[in-house]
Amino acid sequence: MASRQHPEIIITADAQALAETAAERMLSRIKQAKGRAAVCLTGGSSPERLYQLLSLEPYRNNLPWDRVHWFIGDDRFVPIDDPLSNMGMARRIFLDRVEAPDGNIHPIATDMDSPDVAARRYEAELKRFYGADWLDPKRPLFNLVLMGLGIDGHTASLFPHVPALDEMERWVVGIEKAGLEPFVPRVTLTFPALASTREMLFLVGGRDKSEILARVLSGEDLPASRARSQGEFVWLVDRAAALKDHHATSPADV
Ligand code: 6PG
């Protein structure tokens, strides 16, 4: 495993402040992009407040929707209108409510024969968008990658002990069986693809995340501890999740 990358840790007062800080970072990251910007969204409940904010002013008006492309870091292998679909959730909460052109929304196709076929297809789509088959560290794929943290230490759909944790070639893989019950097959970007970004932003909120957050930040070998970013690497954490002493390297209160 490559050496550990120490993140910047930003602690916010509560879930609302966490969402507002994330929205501001997203807006400024997108504005910094000269032409099109690529954002890799995350699923789960943690980003929901952020997504709601994006559908409201001032973000609704200030985001240059026509030049932002929206990808998803992982999804469950279910139809997009299924309540378990991550991209379905993002569409319902904000993408369908704003001026985001349909061609700028890049869901994982879950009507394929298997998660592996869907993964290969999404990888091809990412390569087409990027314009090359190899990730150049000088030219990151994404402007911003959002990430979440599961209570077992997973991030995206990279769960403890799955072979995908060590995948270095593929950009996207299918996950047939892993994770917490009830199990749903999934498709996930791999660590090298997720790392190809100008900024990786973890969103971690709530008391139930405090124990696993402390373990990840102390360097225990858990999936989320393997996340890397070629650009900025930021953990945005609310006070409830940060309750335990978690070895912050450069905490800043927001
Ligand atoms: C998913 C996610 C997953 C998520 C964590 C945290 O498909 O569920 O992408 O990695 O980020 O499980 O989920 P919560 O935000 O719901 O705690």
What does this structure look like?
By secondary structure, the protein is α/β, with parallel strands linked by helices. It is 26% helix and 18% strand. It has seven helices and ten strands. The strands form two sheets. The protein has a seven-stranded parallel β-sheet with strand order 3-2-5-8-9-1-10, with helices on one face. A three-stranded antiparallel β-sheet has the order 4-7-6. Strand 8, helix 7 and strand 9 form a beta-alpha-beta unit. Helix 1 packs across helix 2. The C terminus is likely disordered.
List keywords for this structure.
254 residues, 7 helices, binds 6-phosphogluconic acid
- Strand content is 15-25%
The N- to C-terminal Cα distance equals 33 Å
Give the helix level as a range of percent: 25-40%
* Count of distinct strands: 10
